[in-house]
Amino acid sequence: MTDLTMPTLARKQGWLSRGWAFFFPPTxxxxxxxxxxxxxxxxxxxxxxxxxxxxxxxxxxxEKLMTEAAFxxxxxxxxWEAFAQTLADCIIMAEGALRPAGPAEADKVxxxxxxxxxDILNEHVPAHRLENGWADRIAQxxxxxxxxxxxxxxxxxxxxxxxxxxxxxxxxxxxxxxxxDLEVIAGDLGFHMVALRDSMTKRLRPEPLRALxxxxx
Length: 217
Hints:
Structural class: mainly alpha
Distance between the termini: 26 Å
Shape: globular
Number of helices: 11
Mean pLDDT: 89
Number of domains: 1
Number of strands: 0
Helix content: over 70%
């Protein structure tokens, strides 16, 4: 989640790789690819939404605010908590995309995805989570996932509304300045979630992923 400074050549190679991946996205058909896809997309959603809103809302004051520890630390907390929730949104949407018709197989696929949430989240423990870890977020996800996996898939923008509300609550700006901006955050996040649903349709390979998840991979 932290921005890294790369050498010029590495940056150019990264741009070329991202450009190629944009036009010819690789398929997601094995365990490593699924983990990387879900984690990467959740990180992108959190970063794009949190930082984009903060920059737009503060405009020219953003760079000055980033020199203040309280704002910088608050933004980092907001980004990590947003990541925990966008990851939940991504996995719930992936379950809808991968859900097989048979109930026995559907249970195994859902259980594999449920475990994946904790596995990914526990790989990243930021400073404000060092003492207690992610136990509360994992418990919240388990309860939410249990409900969603039994219901029809929600529209992506509807699915991410709770995440938008959390981002607004944790944004380190005076509440009087952002009290009317929930729809702005929800609209931006919802737009990216719709794009992600389309990406899932194109990139996820249901049959090998179902087999993998059913086998406990």
